[in-house]
Amino acid sequence: MKIRGRFAPTPSGRMHLGNLLSALLAWLDVRSCGGELVLRIEDLDTQRTSPEFAAQLMDDLRWLGLTWDEGGLEPEYMQSCRTAHYEEAFHLLEEKGLIYPCYCSRSERMAASAPHRDDGAVVYSGRCFHLTAAERAELERQGRRPAWRVRCPDLSVTVEDGNCGTYTENLARDCGDFIVRRSDGVFAYQLAVVVDDALMGVNHVVRGRDLLCSAPRQAWLHRELGYAPPRFFHTPLLLAPDGRRLAKRDRDLDVEALQARYAPEELTGLLAFYAGLLDRPEKVTAGELVGQFSWAKVLKNDVVAGSA
Ligand code: GLU
Question: Is it the case that residue 127 has pLDDT exceeding 60?
Answer without folding.
Answer: yes
